[in-house]
Amino acid sequence: MKDFQNKVALITGAGSGIGRALALELAESGCSLALIDWNEGSLSETEQMLEKKNIAVSSHILDVSDKEKVKDLPNQVLSHHNQIDLVFNNAGLSIVGTVDEVDEDDWNFGLDILLNSVIQMTTVFLPHLEKRPEAAIVNTSSIFGLFSVPKQSIYNVGKFGVKAFTESLSLEMEIAESPVEVYCVFPGHIGTNIYSSSRFKSFEPDDAGAAIFGANAATEKEAGIQFKKNAPSSPEYAAKTILKNIKKKNKRILIGFDAHFYDLMSRLFPKSFLKIIWILPFLRNLFKSE
């Protein structure tokens, strides 16, 4: 996809973080937007930021795990925009806890948002995307879709699943010579609110899970603040990186030095990788992105 002008993009999780940054970047390119988020207040804030842009914007308050509402979403989007060219499956959440601590409800809740919603959103919009001269599906996995860490089993399974689903779909689209391009995004540590809005089954001072992100906190709240403050990459940087790689047709998009580092180390040192991941928190500030 050479440019985004006169295209229509749907973005889940558009109320904050990478989703909001994508909306602002795409708007600058002349791309109209269908914004999706469960939080009416934050979604309204994103919409207000776009008021002076010369594009069409529709907002849809929606929990992406609500299967019936997702099923009807293409009708709503097409009634506003008459077309759909890009779908960014960006919404996500984290449930922090050991395998012993999380229960069946946690697994169902987490995977419905992290994985099942990505599959359903892709499925319901794919027939409409295939009618366009060129189109794209952009699914957000994570560095935790490349390797696993303690106390993030639900997030790991969800993001590994997004990776597997997206890669399979990409191959199918290529074999079918479809106009739909399929991208998988692997953000590293991005300065968003995802950690502070996590569901915590447990938290201890100097928690090992938080330490991976350079946090050395005594409380959940403090860890969330440090997670966002210490991030080597911003949502704006992430959005620019994603769109630049779509233009270049790079189907596998790593965001941030840490993502590239972890990806390489997990391949080179699979047996000792869990020891290596603790090195980067000490180095992250040397490679901080704007």
From TrEMBL:
InterPro entries: NAD(P)-bd_dom_sf, Sc_DH/Rdtase_CS, SDR_fam
Annotated PROSITE patterns: ADH_SHORT
Gene Ontology MF terms in the entry: oxidoreductase activity
Gene3D superfamilies listed in its UniProt record: NAD(P)-binding Rossmann-like Domain (3.40.50.720)
Keywords: Oxidoreductase
Coiled-coil residue spans: none
Highest taxon above the source species: Bacteria
Pfam families according to UniProt: adh_short
Family matches, as SUPFAM superfamilies: NAD(P)-binding Rossmann-fold domains
Family, per entry: Belongs to the short-chain dehydrogenases/reductases (SDR) family.
Name of the featured protein: Short-chain dehydrogenase/reductase family protein
Organism: SAR86 cluster bacterium SAR86A
Species classification: Bacteria, Pseudomonadati, Pseudomonadota, Gammaproteobacteria, SAR86 cluster
